[in-house]
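tool=predict chain=A
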Amino acid sequence: MNRFRNILQVVDTSAEPEKSVGRAVIRAKEHRAKLRILDVVPTPPTAGLLPSGDTHIDPRIELINERQRQLQALVRDYNEPPDIQIEVRTGRRFLEVIGSVLRHEHDLVIKAADDPDWTDRLFGSDDMHLLRKCPCPVQLEKPGPPASPGCIMAAVDFDPFDPDATQIQLNQRILELASTEALLTGAELHVLHVWNAPAEGLLQRWSPDPVAARSEYLGSLHARHRDHFEQMRQELHARLQAQDGSDVVPRFHLLQGSPVTILPRQARELNADLVVMGTLARTGISGLFMGNTAEAVLDQLGCSVLAIKPAGFRSPVRVEEEE
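tool=predict ok
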């Protein structure tokens, strides 16, 4: 079973942190994982803040200590909590989150989803930075009470004409993590693949018999995706049987259309609590203006999202070793 072992929960003590801590404790107990709770606060200014004649007060240290006391009080509300570490840092949130992942080798980041405005979408909210740059899976949670999911949807993608090793490994990782969550929580598991027909319009314009050409093209394309999807179903079934996961019976959905449209619609129809999907984490100028599928569907989903990077992904963020 592919459990998480070292979870990082990002909280904001100014925005109902008890809900985030509650979810994190539940998740850590399910996975029998270590848990680190991280709050990142802006670096406070020092000019004009010190009392007259007092040069020994450091506003930054005072703020960090106060936030730590608040988080420790929240943790004490839970009976028999997992192994929990508390950390408060100052600086830019996404940089400190990725820095903690790199320093402490976290294998999952959990964070409440942002509600970004237009400027955030253009220049990059914390969520977008984490989707693009965080080296481990990132779970962005929509508001709601702390509870285990009742329905999980895993979204996989592939090109049946040109199988790519990176994409195959990413799909395997998506299905491994989604099935583990279903095993641990008793949730329903749905596996979704959306395929499209890029040459359909071209055939209709240029073929002497567009109806027949379209039918043949779509039939052939559908068969290719169906066969590849069936292979994935068989491999997942064998993996679940090997893990004594007979209680999990995944349902497979092969749909035609645009993933950006179909994926959120299917999540709503299934009443999914968690969508597990991959991201290829583009960075640079193009990444600022044209995000990948995970970024495009994030704002359309009314549920939590677990976004997974391909194997071998290296974050462009670097941190200095701390003494």
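Strands lie at 6-11, 34-41, 84-90, 108-112, 138-141, 151-156, 188-195, 251-256, 274-278, 304-308. The CA atoms of residues 94 and 126 lie 5 Å apart.
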